[in-house]
């Protein structure tokens, strides 16, 4: 079980680092997903990208794995309103309505995935 958990820990870290990097490579995409009631859209895009990269890296450091997993969990909750906003305004991102709908439960999967790594593990590093 610990090998499986370690593999999923590495995959989550790669996903977070990749997603965070995309905030800097294509901020325009993320700006379209920002609910209008949030201030400083560009700043929040860059900040969330930086936090995603940081948490992804920290997830790979055994000393910080659990803290990073809690951070990812909190970040996923913080960005959930953007997913709801996209679902409510599907014209912002061209995709079939089912794709917009499936983003919502997919967020729950990511929450559970992050939560799994808040729990202690015997093997807590992608290096081992």
Overview of the structural elements:
The protein is mainly alpha-helical and about 130 residues long. The chain has one domain (about 1-115). It has five helices and no strands. The mean pLDDT is about 90.
Nutshell version of this structure?
The chain is mostly helical and 128 residues long. The chain has helices at 2-25, 27-32, 41-59, 65-88, 97-116. The chain is built from 5 helices and no strands.
Keywords:
128 residues; mainly alpha; 73% helix
Which helices and strands, and how do they pair?
Blueprint: H1 2-25, H2 27-32, H3 41-59, H4 65-88, H5 97-116
Helix pairs in contact: 1-3, 3-4, 4-5
SSE sequence, one letter per element: HHHHH
Structural class: mainly alpha
| Major beta sheet summary | none
Distance between the termini: 14 Å
What integer value in Å does the Rg equal? 15 Å
Q: What's the helix count?
A: 5
- Gross morphology is globular
User: Would you identify the regions where 5 or more consecutive residues have pLDDT less than 50?
Assistant: none
Strand content: under 5%
Number of domains: 1
**Count of DSSP E strands?**
0
Give the overall pLDDT as a whole number.
Answer: 91
As a percent range, the share of helical residues equals over 70%
